[in-house]
Amino acid sequence: MEPKVMIILGSASDFKIAEKATAILEKLEIYYDLRVASAHRTHEKVKKIVTSAAKNGVQIFIGIAGLSAHLPGIIAGITHKPVIGVPVDVKVAGLDALFASVQMPLGAPVATVGVDRGENAAILAAQIIGIHDAGVREKLASFRRDFYSKIAEDEEKLFLQMNGKYYSKIEPGSLEEVTNEDSHGEKGINTHPGKMRDGIFPPQVAVISGSYSDIKVAKKTTMFLDKLNITYDSSVVSPVRSPDKFENFLKRNRDAQLFIAISGLSAHVTGAVVAYTEKPVIGVPCAIKMEGMDALLSMVNMPPGVPVATMGVDSGGNAAILAAEMLGIGDKVIKKDLLRFKGNINCKR
């Protein structure tokens, strides 16, 4: 079988991180290949691997590197396929690799996950494949249920250790399950549907911003989605200040193929979206305070099982381009528009 995922290591010393990724791909039964090539020392080898792999059915590339981790960016500059970057902690807690991977120029997005998070890279790759493959989506759903079961088991073990005088457990049966009615087109939420292409509904992308202070980046994102002829629904709603409206927006867009979450400060928006959906979530940190460092770090460093494809600070344009790369795997129209758009960017440089 032809591999769908190509893992490229900047050094053989990064293999322990790659093993986290291959373990997940094995569990989800996704074919993959693995190579070692340095962006700086064997540039031509990287180019040959990427071009050959793209011609032979590879849909997603995972670049794993530490230090000045330019490998994922070099891969992104060669292909129009989605590229996932995994920064490795070699020095300074992996921050050098993180910044090198995430802060990419317009036109070459890298979906960066947390430092050493090889498992999240593989899960994100599976989510992208799952946009066009129902079988992979079902395996992901089962995988996610396993995470839930593990947490429930851990909770039961913790209960056995609780023996405080004032510890008073509420029995599960007495906890009321709160449900919100489905709300399609709820009043009071601003939506901005993109240009329709051949009557496509529901929107292909759901764009959600946590605050009106993020609106400038959101408008840049939707402007690029319009240029790429991708349909979208967009809203400004906070999961902290308006949790019901936030949940209703997600329910309304449950059939969207992917999400773009835009947020500054502590970036609760992305965490709330990935908790809700098993579909790919692209995160855009905004520079509200601390030059966006708070948003970037809280967005990218997600726990195992819930990856966010993190872009550079304020990089709404790259978020839209990455969305097109994800959708273009199975949509020839989007792929054509993406190649044309990238060609125009190169002409302007």
Short descriptors:
single chain; 349 residues; alpha/beta; five-stranded parallel sheet; 12 helices
**How many distinct helices?**
12
Shape annotation: globular
Radius of gyration: 20 Å
With strands numbered from the N-terminus, the spatial order across the biggest sheet is: 2-1-3-4-5
User: Approximately what portion of the residues adopt beta-strand conformation?
Assistant: 5-15%
Task: Let me know the largest β-sheet.
Answer: 5 strands, parallel
Tell me roughly what share of residues is in helical segments: 40-55%
Structural class: alpha/beta
Head-to-tail CA distance between termini: 39 Å
What is the averaged pLDDT score? Answer: 89
Q: List SSEs in N-to-C order.
A: EHEHEHEHEHHEHEHEHEHEHH
Number of strands: 10
Low-confidence stretches: 178-198
Explained architecture:
The structure is a single chain. The protein is of the alpha/beta class and 349 residues long. The strands form 2 sheets. Strands 2-1-3-4-5 form a 5-stranded parallel beta sheet, sandwiched between helices. The protein has a 5-stranded parallel beta sheet with strand order 7-6-8-9-10, sandwiched between helices. It has helices at residues 15-27, 43-55, 71-78, 95-102, 118-130, 134-161, 215-227, 243-252, 268-276, 293-300, 316-328, 332-348; strands spanning 5-9, 32-36, 60-66, 83-88, 111-112, 205-209, 232-236, 258-264, 281-286, 309-310. The chain is globular, with a radius of gyration of 20 Å. Helix 1 (15-27) runs parallel beside helix 5 (118-130) and helix 2 crosses helix 3. The two termini are 39 Å apart. The protein is built from 12 helices and 10 strands. Helix 10 links the parallel strand 9 and strand 10.
